[in-house]
Amino acid sequence: MPPNPFQPSARPYKPRAAVWRFENRHMQHARRGRSLAVSLLALGLTLGAGARAQDSTGPAPTWSLSGFGTLGAVHSSEPNADYTASVLKSSGAGATRRWSMDVDSRLGMQLDLAFDKRWSAVLQVVSEQDLNNSYRPRVEWANVKYQATPELALRVGRIALPMFLSAEYRKVGYVYPWVRPPVEGYGALPFTSSDGVDANYRWSLGPVRNTTQVFYGHADEPLIAPMRAYGRRVTGLANIADWGALSVRASVIGVEATTTLGQALFDALRAAGPAGTALAQAYAIDHKHLHVASIGVNYDPGRWFLMAEASRTHSDSLLGATRSAYVSAGWRHGDFTPYATWSRVAAAGPTSTPGLPLAGLPPALARQAAVLNAGLNALLATIPQQDSASVGLRWDLHADMALKLQYDRVRPHGGSRGTLINQTPGFESGGTAHVASVALDFVY
Amino acid sequence: MGVLKRSRHALAGLALAAAALAPAQAADLVVIVSARSPVTMLRADQVAAIFLGQSARFPDGQEAVPVDQRIGSPLRDEFYARVASKTPALLKAWWSKMVFTGRGQPPAEAPDSAAVRRRVADNPDTVGYIERAALDASVRPVLVVQ
C-alpha cells in the first residue's frame, strides 16, 4: 500500500491477548476503509478550526468540540513478522510492508456537552486501523456525568478502562512523551472500555490528593468480523495519589471473558474424548476470569520525568499469566525532550502443553491428535515474552503539536513472537527487530 | 475554554504604565479572591491544585472556581511555571489528558488582568491571578507568586 499523506493518525493501543494474535495472524483481510478516515480527518480539521464554545457559568447547555490525532510512520527490520502497537490491528511494519503508517496513525474527535453545573456528557470517536483493516470510527467514550459534589462524580455509559498510568489516554499521543506507550505493558486486556457505571471520588490525606474510581460494566469488543469478544462483570478499582510532582496509580480489574475465537480447535479437542475435553476446558476462553493488577509511578518535577510501572495478568485460559514492567526517563530541554525506555513482558506460567496423549493411538488418529496439539501450542506460543529498549526525542514544535522520533530494539524470546503479529513460517523467536518510528501528534 | 469579550480598562493602562517604569523586572504575580471572600491565604500547591482541576474547593471547604489569563499571555506562562512547574506545552498536555478522559475542562479565561480582577471581585467563589500593580480594593491578594 502506498503511504497516504492524509491517513489519519492515531496511537494504537488496544490490549493484546493470545487468541486475538492467533486469529490475526491467520487472517489477512482486504485493505479498505481509507476514504472514511480521510473524510473524518477533513471534517475534524474543518470543525476544529473554529468550533468551540463553552462557558460553564451559562444557563443554557454549552458544548465544545476538540480532537486529537497522530500521523505516524514506522519501519521494522524484521521481515518475518509485523511490529505493531496493538494486537487489535490487522498489520504493521515488517512482514506486510517495511514502512507502515497503520501502527500509530489515528484521528479522534470529542464532543463535550455541559447541561448545567452538575450534568454533562461526552462523546469521543476514534478512527484507526482495526483487525479488519478498516478505519471505521469507533466510539471510545460515550457517557453522561453527574457531578454530585465537587468531589464525587458518577458516570453512566461507555467508559475507558482505567488500567495503567496511560491507558485512559493512550490514544492521545500528544499527552505522553513517547511515540506510543511501551507495547509490552499495555496489552493485558482484550477490552479497552466497558459499558456501565463508575464513580470517581476525590479526597485528600494530608498533602496527598487522591482520586479513587470504582466501576462495573460489560464489554463487547469487535474482532475480525463477525467474531467478537465479550466481557461480563467488568469490575475495577483504581486509585491515583498525587503528592507534588509524584503520582502513583494502582488498579485492579477483573472480567469474565468469552470469545468464539479458536472455537473450531476446541470443538475438535472436545470430540477427541475426555483428555481433549479437559484441554478445551483448561484453555478455551469461555466464561474465564481474567485479572489485571498494575502499579505505576510517575515523578515529573517539570525539567525531567521518571516513570515506572509493573503489572501482572492472570487467566486460567490460553491467555495465560504474564508479568510486565517498564522504566522510562527523559529530560526537557526547551522544546526538546530526549527519553529512554526499557520494557519487558514475560510469561508467568507454562507456554506449551503436551496436549493429547499420542501413545497407543492408531497412526491415523495419532496424526490428527498431533495436528490438534500443534494448533493448541501455536496459541500458547502467542503469550508474549519480549524485551525492548528504546530511545527517542520529542520536539514540541507548536503549542498543539509535537514531532517524535523513536528507535526501538525489540527482542521476542522464549519461543514467543512477543508483541509481533502476522509472523511468517520463517519467523524465529530470539531475533532482534530494529524499529524506527516518526510521529506527529496534535490536539485541537 | 471559555472566551470572554476582550475589554480594555483604565486600570489595565495603569498596570502597563507601572510595568513601563520597571522594565527590567518581571511583574510580581498575585493570586486574588474577592474582597467579600473569607479566604485570606493560600499556598502555592493549593492554588496549583485548583487551577489544574485537582481540587474544587478552598482549604476552608468553600467551592473554588479558577479564572485564567488568556492563553499565550506572558503572565499566564509565568504563573504556571512558578506554581506548577509547567511550560505551556506541559500544561496543554495536562489538559489534553483531563479533557480526553472526561475528567474536566480547563478554567474559563479572561482577556487581561482587569477582566480577571472584575470577575473575581464579583464572584466570591472565584480565584484568579494578576500583576501586583493591577490590585485594587475590590480584591484580596492571598498569595504572592515568587
- What portion of residues of chain B is helical? 25-40%
Shape assignment of chain B? globular
The percent of residues in helical segments of chain A reads 10-25%
CATH topology of chain B: D-Maltodextrin-Binding Protein, domain 2
Q: How many helical stretches of chain B? A: 5
Give structural notes:
The complex is a heterodimer of chains A (444) and B (146). In chain A, α3 packs antiparallel against α4. Chain A has a single domain (18-443), classed as Porin, CATH 2.40.160.10. The model of chain A is unreliable at 1-58 (pLDDT under 50). The two termini of chain A are 29 Å apart. In chain A, 14% of the residues lie in helices and 45% in strands. Chain A has 444 residues and is mostly beta strands. Chain A contains five helices and 20 strands. The longest helix of chain A has 18 residues, at 363-380. In chain A, the strands form two sheets. In chain A, strands 2-6-7-8-9-10-11-12-13-14-15-16-17-18-19-20 form a 16-stranded antiparallel beta barrel. Chain A is globular. In chain A, β15 (304-315) and β16 form a beta hairpin. With 146 residues, chain B is of the alpha/beta class. Chain B has one domain: 3-Layer(aba) Sandwich (D-Maltodextrin-Binding Protein, domain 2). Chain B has helices at residues 10-21, 44-51, 74-84, 88-100, 113-122, and strands at 29-34, 65-69, 108-110, 126-131, 139-145. Chain B has a five-stranded mixed β-sheet, with helices on both faces. Chain B starts with 9 loop residues before the first helix and ends with a strand. The relative contact order of chain B is 0.30. Mean pLDDT of chain B is 82; it is low at 1-25.
Brief summary:
With 444 residues, chain A is mainly β. Chain A contains five helices and 20 strands. Chain A has a single domain, classed as Beta Barrel (Porin).
For this entry, give a set of tags.
heterodimer; A: mainly beta; Porin; 16-stranded antiparallel barrel; two-stranded antiparallel sheet; 20 strands; disordered N terminus; B: 146 residues
